[in-house]
């Protein structure tokens, strides 16, 4: 069975919802108060992904007239985001990364809304984008994702069997994280969402025999670590409960307006960065053109020393005969023909 839309949550308190204690020091009704550890230690602040409201409000009614782009986006987000966050949580085992993956997928969908709006299956389009981001291999280089995520113990108000389900769900997530990403994704799509084998193969971009082999390997790996999930029916039920949020822990997404605003702001930042890099590149090109030589200048050959040339002799003092000859020439030339000593008239 294929789940096109997540089921509407009931308006009754879930089993994992914290209740106020007798002395009034427990969590508040709206889920914003501190949680209490099962061991009775001092309370700590509750993270956003641990908040479980007692009464889940119904989604706002859609307008009766034709929807604009923003209203259609909010309708798609409201119907798909909760289930997608839980799917990403099964794939990654991290609540913060699961929410980030879904937000990035919807931000990408908002940027390409003309394409998503006419897609036959917009839910599948966003789901594929969220799963691709959640299973991206580049996350291993993020320092914040190298540290293990803290896990809260089951609620004191939850029933014993539901506390056991919570621990089993954590164990199931740990087993899923040991599988390769394609195997993990195929198992969640086929057994968790109930997609058919051809649809699962198409979404994971693999052939049908390869997808069937991945499913068999993933089921065997889960059964080896969790014998109580060796039955495929029980495994499907447990994965479906985790995807639909019927377990004692719930991962909540953000609001559609906030996601859309953050996506637009992120797109503007990338646009400004691209413009700045382009301007810097054009400035560097202009500077290079201005300072580059405009004609060819042959290089000056390196000089080589010349050896064997006699040194230039220096003239010494004149002898007595040379002095007399110089005096006689000067006296004769001074009184000689005019061609030798022209007269100034």
From TrEMBL:
Compositional bias per record (Pro residues), positions renumbered to this chain: 1-10
Membrane-spanning parts: none
Domain of life, source organism: Bacteria
InterPro entries in the record: RNA_pol_sigma-70-like, RNA_pol_sigma_r2, RNA_pol_sigma_r3/r4-like, WH-like_DNA-bd_sf
Keywords: DNA-binding, Sigma factor, Transcription, Transcription regulation
Coiled coil: none
Residue ranges, annotated region (Disordered): 1-39, 296-317
Listed Low complexity bias regions: 11-37
A single MF term (Gene Ontology): DNA binding
Transcription regulation as UniProt keyword: yes
GO BP annotations listed: DNA-templated transcription initiation
Family to which the UniProt record says this protein belongs: Belongs to the sigma-70 factor family. ECF subfamily.
Protein's recorded name: RNA polymerase subunit sigma-70
């Amino acid at each position: 069975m294929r789940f096109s839309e997540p089921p509407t949550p009931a308006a009754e308190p879930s089993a994992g919802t914290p209740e106020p204690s007798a002395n009034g020091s427990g969590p508040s009704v709206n889920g914003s108060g501190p949680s209490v550890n099962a061991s009775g230690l001092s309370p700590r602040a509750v993270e956003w992904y641990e908040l479980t409201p007692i009464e889940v409000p119904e989604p706002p009614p859609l307008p009766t007239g034709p929807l604009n782009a923003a209203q259609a986006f909010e309708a798609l987000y409201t119907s798909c985001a909760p289930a997608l966050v839980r799917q990403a949580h099964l794939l990654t085992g991290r609540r913060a990364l699961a929410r980030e993956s879904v937000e990035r997928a919807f931000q990408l969908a908002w940027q390409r809304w003309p394409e998503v709006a006419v897609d036959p299956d917009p839910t599948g389009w966003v789901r594929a984008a969220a799963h691709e981001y959640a299973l991206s291999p580049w996350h291993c280089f993020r320092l914040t994702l190298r540290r293990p995520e803290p896990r809260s113990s089951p609620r004191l108000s939850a029933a014993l069997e539901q506390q056991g389900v919570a621990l089993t769900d954590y164990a199931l997530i740990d087993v899923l994280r040991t599988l390769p990403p394609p195997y993990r994704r195929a198992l969640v799509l086929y057994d968790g969402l109930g997609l058919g084998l051809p649809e699962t193969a198409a979404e994971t971009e693999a052939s049908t025999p390869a997808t069937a082999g991945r499913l068999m390997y993933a089921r065997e790996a889960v059964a080896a670590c969790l014998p109580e999930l060796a039955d495929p029916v029980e495994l499907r039920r447990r994965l479906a409960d985790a995807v639909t949020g019927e377990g004692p822990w719930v991962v909540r997404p953000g609001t559609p307006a906030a996601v859309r605003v953050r996506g637009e702001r992120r797109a503007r930042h990338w646009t400004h960065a691209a413009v700045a890099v382009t301007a810097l590149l054009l400035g560097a090109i202009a500077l290079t053109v201005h300072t580059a030589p405009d004609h060819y200048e042959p290089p000056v050959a390196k000089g080589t020393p010349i050896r064997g040339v006699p040194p230039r002799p220096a003239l010494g003092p004149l002898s007595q005969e040379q002095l007399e000859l110089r005096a006689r020439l000067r006296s004769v030339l001074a009184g000689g023909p005019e061609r030798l000593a022209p007269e100034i008239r």
